[in-house]
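Example protein as discussed:

>
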Amino acid sequence: MIDKIINEAKDGVVAAIKGTGDVVNALRTAVKEVVVGTVTDAGEVTNAAVETVASVTKGAVTGAVSVGTTAVDSAADIVGATIKGVSEVGGDVLGATKEAVSGIIHGTKEVGGDISETAVNAVRGAIKAAEDIGTDVGQAAEHAVLGAISAADEIGDDTGTIVRDALLASAALPKDIVSSAIGKKSE
């Protein structure tokens, strides 16, 4: 089931991007449609449905990279579209935020992209989406950071440290929230 979701997301992104010159909007639309369809197909908006979000974002980033964009460049748009899609169907936006960022990190590892910069852009995308849909931005940022560092830790200790350092060093992210989330992950 998970492989099917990953492949559907990848194929949807590839088809959408190849069919237009507007990569950013095609990417956003394709990801949001896959998220809405996947969560709706699950029948209920349950934890299991939210967990499929990581598979969608992983597939989306591999699809985006396969048509010539980078994980770094597509991360914010993929995460943002995912969060908006989950919000549209009444899902757990904060849980989906964490899972979306986690999926991006795992997908970036798979395609050999820059995980630390992708993590920063994914968190930025989560913050922007939270603002757009009226969700608590601080909580969304915290969940996004937790998703990034959890996934990075799963990849390996060096990756976790590198991602933590990149998140803390980014001028684009709220330092207090990033520090707090990293502290919570360490506990």
